[in-house]
Design goal:
This protein has 242 residues and is of the alpha/beta class. 40% of the residues lie in helices and 14% in strands. It has eight helices and six strands; from the N terminus they run E-H-H-E-H-H-E-H-E-H-H-E-E-H. The chain has a six-stranded parallel sheet, sandwiched between helices. Bound molecules: farnesyl diphosphate.
Length: 242
């Protein structure tokens, strides 16, 4: 990758199109999820190497429980296998794995595997990998509101303590804002992904299914990010009239 490029500090990835990738090849949808693990492993190494500091992945939304039981069961097994085996390389690679989302109703085995990889990587600091699992922005806002109400009720905070920064720090994880959100598969939606954190993110929607989203595609995305003029609601510079 061109060394002059500005690397976004926090990248969000909505890993969409696994099912269609598999169906296009005459396979069942779950085979697309399986293929996605290989893609993800390579992508994490690449992101750590190019200097991304935080990456948030949309692995399973609160709404995904509405899918066929066979697909949900397959995904739960895939999560356990990933955190207990496939992702072990992250310990050596300096990747710290954390999670965002509701615990209930995730199976015990998934929760245990999540805890295991969290503990094993807790001292790493090259790349923070935030895996959104049983995650939804609406649920996050509800859960954060309840947490702040409890703090208030217990006398731990006064109302003037609650500002934008305090809310951000009390979301599921205390993370910097998203700079860049990539959603593969050509769908142009946020689908309840990190709405609070994405308020000034740049968006990129490559027309490619996630299993095919390789390092080269990621580099292309970074080049597009570098063409964006981020103003955060202000103006960068006065234009000259003469
Ligand atoms: C969306 O594609 C993908 C998902 C709901 C699951 C994402 C899961 C993975 C990439 C694998 C596991 C990840 C981790 C972190 C271990 P889709 O199934 O909606 O595809 P479609 O839009 O073509 O139907």
């Amino acid at each position: 990758m061109n060394k002059e490029l500005n690397i976004p500090n926090h990248v969000g990835i909505i890993m969409d199109g696994n099912g269609r990738w598999a169906q296009q090849r005459g396979m069942i949808r779950s085979m697309g999820h399986k293929e996605a693990i290989g893609t993800l492993k390579k992508l994490c190494i690449h992101m750590a190497d190019v200097g991304v500091k935080y990456a948030s992945l949309y692995a399973f939304s609160t709404e995904n429980f509405k899918r066929e039981k066979s697909e949900v069961d397959y995904l739960m097994k895939l999560f356990v296998n990933s955190f207990k085996k496939e992702f072990k390389f992250m310990i050596e690679k300096g990747v710290r794995v954390i999670f965002s989302g509701r615990k209930d109703p995730l199976p015990k085995k998934v929760l245990e595997a999540m805890e295991e990889i969290t503990q094993e990587t807790k001292n790493n600091n090259k790349l923070v990998l935030n895996i959104c699992l049983n995650y939804g922005s609406h649920a996050e806002i509800v859960d954060t509101t309840k947490k702040l109400c409890e703090m208030y009720k217990n006398g731990e905070i006064t109302l003037d303590k609650i500002d934008e920064d305090f809310i951000q720090k009390n979301l599921y994880q205390d993370l910097p804002p998203l700079d860049f959100v990539i959603r593969t598969s050509g769908e142009l939606r946020l689908s309840n992904f990190m709405m609070y954190q994405a308020s000034y993110a740049e968006f990129y929607f490559p027309d490619i299914y996630f299993p095919d989203f390789n390092d080269k595609e990621f580099d292309k995305a970074i080049e597009v990010f570098n063409t964006r003029n981020r103003r955060f609601g202000g103006v960068k510079s006065e234009s000259k009239s003469n």
